[in-house]
Every structure is written in C-alpha cells, then in structure tokens.
Amino acid sequence: MAAPGALLVMGVSGSGKSTVGALLASELGWKFYDADDYHPEENRMKMGKGIPLNDQDRIPWLCNLHDILLRDVASGQHVVLACSALKKAYRDILIRGKDGVSPKCDETGKDKHPAEVKLLVVHLSGSFEVISGRLLKRKGHFMPPELLESQFETLEPPSAPENFIQISVDKNLSEIIATIMETLK
After folding, report:
1. What is the dihedral angle through the alpha carbons of 133, 12, 82, 92, rounded to the nearest 10 degrees?
2. In terms of pLDDT, which residue wins out, 3 or 141?
3. Is the distance from CB of 93 to CB of 68 less than 8 angstroms?
C-alpha cells in the first residue's frame, strides 16, 4: 500500500481515538492533531449541555481540519488526526474539502482542481456496551456519556471505495497499534 499523507483515527466518543492517535503519531514520528481541540466554543457548550451536534455545527469544524491536513501534507508533514468523522460525508470533507472544492475550505482551490488529502481511515469499532463502559470511567471531557447513543445513530462505518481498516476496540492498545503499523507497510 502506498503511504497515505494522513491517517484518520475515527469512531464514536470513547472508542480510543485520542489515545490510539497520539501513540501512533509518536511511533511513526508524525504530527498528531486531536479534532476535539479545534471545536469552537459553541460546539463544546452544546455538547456539554447534552445536545448532539448537527451538520451545521460540524461542517465549519471539518473544513478547518481539512485545511490543517492539506497544509501539513502539502509541506511534506505526515499527520495523524483523531476525529469522530461519523458520516461518510464528513470523511469526504476531511479529504476534499466542502463540495470537493470550497473556497471556504481550501485556499488552494484557485487552481481549479480540488486539493485532496491522501487519507487512510482507521475505524475503531466496538459495541455500545463496551464503549459506554469506557465513557463512564472518563473524567474531565466535555462530551457527556448521554450523547453516545446519538453518535451510534449517526455512525456510518467506512465501506468501499473508502481507503480504510476497521479494528475492534476489544483488542489491547499494542495490538491495535501493531495492526495499523502492519497495514502501513
């Protein structure tokens, strides 16, 4: 497999995206971004009140993340992004920007062909029971466990032709990292 410019570690809240993403970036010597750090304050407040985000909340946030990925990858920097990216449309925005070539999403759109990020999607999947158990143990995160159900309802697991691998959260951390590293060889 040709090396992607970026890895997207995706899944519902509590699936281990940040932990896996940070460790993976460290192993690979790649730059790590946690998408949660880029949510505008309004999104954080909404989630903190137990209100699920809608597309209008997510799209500007995803466009910002696309721009960051594009900038880094264009400069030769490989990136690991931990981001829920629950819908295929959201993953498409991370790869291509909004509508494939959005002036709002990507400044390089001036040359008339959309700038794409070569992305490998790593889907951390698990049952509602396992992940809700993890969330109940998590402290100090703005995403309340009550919103997990809405995330499972929104989730569109990756499928062909997306470039992805799916890994069960039932595996331990070192097995998850080893599986991803093996895929990248």
Report:
1. 170
2. 3
3. no
The tens digit of pLDDT for each residue in 97-127 reads: 886 544 445 444 444 445 788 999 999 999 9
Classified as helix, coil or strand, 161 is coil
Q: What pTM value is reported for the model?
A: 0.88
Sign (positive or negative) of CA dihedral 68, 73, 78, 80 = positive
Q: What is the pLDDT of residue 50?
A: 84
- Tally of CB atoms within 10 A around 153: 9
Cα–Cα distance, 23 to 124 (Å, whole number)? 14
- 140: its two tokens: 């100090």
Count Cα atoms within 13 angstroms, Cβ side, for 95: 17
The tokens of 2 are what?
A: 């040709």
Going by their DSSP bridges, the two strands 119-125 and 6-10 should be labelled as parallel
Which residues are CB-neighbours of 49 under 8 A, at least 6 positions away? none
Overall size of the chain counted in residues: 185
